[in-house]
Amino acid sequence: MYLGLDDTDSPDGMCTTYLAALIAEALEAGGCTVKNMRLIRLNPNVPWKTRGNAGVCIEFDGDMEFASQTAGEFIEKYGMFDCENTNPGFAVCAKKPAPDFYYQALREFCTVEEAKAVLDSVGAVYRGYKNERGLIGALAAICAELPDKTYEYLAYRKPEAFGTPRVFDAESIRESAEATFPHVWDTWDFSADKPVCIPHGKDPVLFGIRGESPEWVKKAVSYLKTEEVSRFVIWETNQGTDAHMLSFTGEFLEGRSYVFDGTVTALPTTQRGGHVSFAVDGVVCYAFEPTKSFRSVVRELLEGDELTVFGSFQGGVIHVEKFCLRSPAKKEVRVSPCCPVCGGRMTSAGKGKGYKCRDCSGRVREPVYTKRILSAGWYEVPPDARRHLAKPVCRISE
Ligand code: ATP
């Protein structure tokens, strides 16, 4: 059996994964056996998402009627119905539909009617509330296929702590990251020297530890010293897999994410608000202000650099998530080298004749170019600006 669930929370509280954890406990208490918990991220460009556009699915053995009754009761008790953008939906089915709807919800846009047609085709029991949009994420989570997958250990706070500052020992988080990276990522940001795994909102999540296997995330958690945890779930996810990326085939469509090759055709410029723009084969690409230190990397790009760019197309421009500098352009700016004999500054010895030292007899025959800061390789936004679906560079093996 598959129970899918989505769109129950608001920026003011709750979290669909927490509600699913409560439902899974109630299913177990009612005699069902929970076999797997899946946290599925969907198109990050949908404008009506609350945070990370997630849907969840509980795989279980048990009674369909009991499961749908339990899901309905919990949604009606805990769902944030007052929020305009909260439109819960759940579905239970015995047969997993083909993954087509998942791929559409992951990479493009879907309607509630399309979701209902698929749910009806497999005899699902389902219920949508308000505008019923949550049925889209509920179904997508049910029919998701994960050719590449990662895991997230989500620890939840005790209800009496919701809305209060989270209590944790930062040093233990850093130790955990040092002991488990790159098998576990997004625990600690070493360049900004701060935790990444602790959320800031009013939701019930205390921390989320992401890694390549249940064993690795458990190992990372064993280092953490925090306030008391009420419950936890190790979710199977499509996070960190780049599953949302479409290969570019000639046309950028609004609200889709693409991977494409190209050459830098316009130098980076810093815009108002600190956003940095540049162009790849004439397509305008942006590293926006929240990507912080990534903008310094982008500012080093040169015309002629050959890149593979990963990003989403929104408002007619690419929001860059990461890029691979495949072939750096040679920077044709000559510099005066230091003299190999006395270490002094050298001057040009004339066109094509290299350099001569002003103070001694030292000569350098070959022209010397300024060194580029960027070398061939991968560059990505910092962890707290990274989309849940984006594959972190530490997972890329090429
Ligand atoms: P939550 O913590 O509740 O999961 P969220 O950031 O995931 O928060 P939701 O509140 O779930 O956002 O809102 C996203 C809404 O968009 C859901 O109703 C979901 O069904 C719907 N949705 C997801 N993907 C698509 C898509 N590709 N096309 C249309 N609607 C979508």
Tally of separate helices? 8
Count of separate structural domains: 4
> Average pLDDT value?
94
User: What oligomeric assembly is this protein in?
Assistant: single chain
The rough form would be described as: elongated
The count of DSSP E runs of length 2 or more, i.e. the number of strands, is 21
Strand order of the largest sheet: 5-4-1-3-2-11-6-10-7
Specify the helix fraction band: 10-25%
Secondary-structure arrangement, i.e. CATH architecture of the largest domain:
2-Layer Sandwich
What is the N-to-C succession of helices and strands? EHEEHEHHEHEHEEEEHEEEEEHEEEEEE
> Which structural class matches the secondary elements?
alpha+beta
Indicate the CATH topology of the largest domain.
Answer: Alpha-Beta Plaits
Task: Provide the β-strand percentage band.
Answer: 25-35%
Short description:
With 398 residues, the chain is of the alpha+beta class. It is built from eight helices and 21 strands.
Any chance you could write out the topology, listing elements then pairs?
Elements lengths: L1 E5 L9 H14 L3 E9 L12 E8 L2 H15 L10 E5 L6 H8 L4 H10 L3 E4 L5 H10 L6 E8 L12 H11 L3 E2 L2 E2 L4 E2 L9 E7 L2 H8 L7 E9 L7 E3 L8 E15 L5 E5 L2 E5 L6 H5 L7 E9 L2 E11 L18 E3 L6 E3 L5 E2 L12 E4 L18
Parallel strand pairs: 2-11, 12-13, 15-17
Antiparallel strand pairs: 1-3, 1-4, 2-3, 4-5, 6-10, 6-11, 7-10, 8-9, 13-14, 13-16, 14-15, 16-17, 17-21, 18-19, 19-20
The structure holds adenosine-5'-triphosphate.
Adenosine-5'-triphosphate binds next to helix 5.
